[in-house]
Amino acid sequence: MAEKTIALTGDKPRVIVVGAGFGGLAATRELAGKDVEVILIDRSNHHLFQPLLYQVATADLSPADIAWPIRGIFSHASNVSVFLGEVTGIDLATKSVIARDYRVEYDYLVLATGAATSYFGHDDWAKVAPGLKNIGEATEIRKRLLLAFELAENAEDDETRRKFMNFVVVGGGPTGVEMAGAIAELAKQALSNDFRRIDPRDARIILVEAAPRLLGAFPEDLSAYTRQSLERLGVEVVLNQPVSDITPEGVQIGDDFIESANAIWAAGVKVDHMADWTHAKTDRGGRVEVASDLSLPDHPDTFVIGDAAHVPWQDGLAVPGIAPAAKQMGKYAGRRILDHLGGRDTKPFVYKHAGNLATIGRHRAVIDFNGFKLKGFIAWWVWGLAHIYFLIGIRAPALVLVQWAWSYIFCKKGARLITGPVEPDPDRAPEKTRTDQGDG
C-alpha cells in the first residue's frame, strides 16, 4: 500500500503530540484553543490514569473508572484532532511522523511515548509474569488472580492447590507494594467466604525486591513501616534477593524455588525506539538526554517529555518517571512552543517535586511531602483524595469514591470479573509487555 502523506496546510503552525499519557495530554491542553493546529497521535483511543491501574488488576475498579476517550476530552477544542495509530518512525530531516501507512508533517513535535516494561534481558518471562502498564495487562492480571482461586478450588491434590495459591510480586517500588497489599486484601478479606473447598486466607503472597529495602525513593522509616504493614497483611517480604528465573512452574528467588502459577512483574521500565527515532544520546533505560528546554539537541522544534526524557534534577539524579513530572513537562513544552511562535524567551524547565505517595492496603499508606511525612490511615485518605483530584470530569471521581467507600465498609471488591479466554496454562497466555502509547 502506498504511503499517504498528511501535508502541512500553511494556515496554522502544526504541532504533533505523540502519546496521550499525562505529558501528552498536558501539552495538548496547553495548546488547545490557541492559534495552532494540533494532531494528537496514540495507539489507543483513551487516556489512562495509570496510578490506579493496580486497582483494576485487583478487582477494586473497572477499566472505565480510570480511562476516558481522548476525543471526548478534546471535543470542545476545535484546533485539536485525534489520530488513532501507532507511530513507527520519525523523520527529523523532513519533519514528519510515520504512523504505519501515513506520513504526517509537522512544524513542532512533542514526543510523549511513555515507557514499557523491562525484564532486564529476560523478555521470555513476559508470558508468565505480566507487567502492569495498560488496561490489557491489568485485566489479564485480574483474570489470572481470580482464576487461580477457581483452579485451586477445583484442584484434586494439595500440591496443585498450593501452586495456584502462591502469588509472587517482583519489585518493591510503589507498584509492587500496592499490588502485594491489594492481593493480600483480595485473598484474606474480599474472597474469604466465597469458596467451599479452599480457604483463600491460606494464600501465600510474596513480594521480592533485589535492593535492601522497599520503596527506595522514600525515607528509611517509611520503608520500614511499609514492610511491617505488609507483613501484618500476611505478605512475605523478601529483600536483597534478585529473581533469577520465572517459569510456568514457579519463581527462582536466590537459592529458593517457589512453586507458583501467579507471578507479576513490577521491577523495571525501559523506553523503546527513542534512540532509533531521534539518533540522540540516551541513558541506560533508553531515555533521551534533552536540552534545558526539553528540546532534542540540534532540533529546537522537537521536544521529548515524560518517561521518555532524561532531565537532570538533583544529586546526580534525573527527574523521576511519575505522573506529576510528566504533566509539568507537557505544560512546559506547550508553553515553549507558543513562546517560540510569539518570539518570546522561555526560562529553562525546572521540576517541582511535590513528594512521593504509595498505598499499602485498605487503610494504610505512606507519604513524603519533601520531608513532611505521613503514614497510616490519615495518609491513606490523603493518598485517595489526591488521586481523585486528578481524575477527569465529574462522573469518574464520584464513581471511584463510591466504589472505594463500598470496598472499605463491606470489604468487597465489585469488579471481580474473569474476562477473556479462560486459559489455565500461563505459558500459552498472550504476550503483553508494552505500555499504552503515552507516559505514565
Give a written overview of the molecule:
- This protein is an alpha/beta fold.
- Helix content is 29%, strand content 23%.
- It has a six-stranded mixed β-sheet with strand order 6-3-2-10-22-21, covered by helices on one side. Strands 1-9-8-7 form a four-stranded mixed β-sheet. Strands 14-13-12-18 form a four-stranded parallel β-sheet.
Span between N and C termini?
Answer: 34 Å
Helix segment tally: 11
Can you give the helix content as a percent range? 25-40%
Strand order of the largest sheet: 6-3-2-10-22-21
Major sheet description? 6 strands, mixed
Keywords:
11 helices; alpha/beta; four-stranded mixed beta sheet; 440 residues
Sum this structure up briefly.
With 440 residues, this protein is of the alpha/beta class. It is 29% helix and 23% strand.
Per-chain topology:
Elements: E1 4-6, E2 14-18, H1 22-31, E3 37-42, E4 46-48, H2 53-57, E5 67-69, H3 70-73, E6 80-84, E7 89-91, E8 96-99, E9 102-105, E10 108-111, E11 116-117, H4 135-154, H5 158-164, E12 166-170, H6 174-190, E13 204-208, H7 220-232, E14 235-238, E15 243-247, E16 250-253, E17 256-259, E18 262-265, E19 269-270, H8 274-278, E20 288-289, E21 295-296, E22 299-304, E23 309-310, H9 323-341, E24 356-361, E25 364-369, E26 372-375, H10 377-389, H11 395-410
Parallel strand pairs: 1-9, 2-3, 2-10, 3-6, 10-22, 12-13, 12-18, 13-14, 20-23
Antiparallel strand pairs: 4-5, 7-8, 8-9, 11-19, 15-16, 16-17, 21-22, 24-25, 25-26
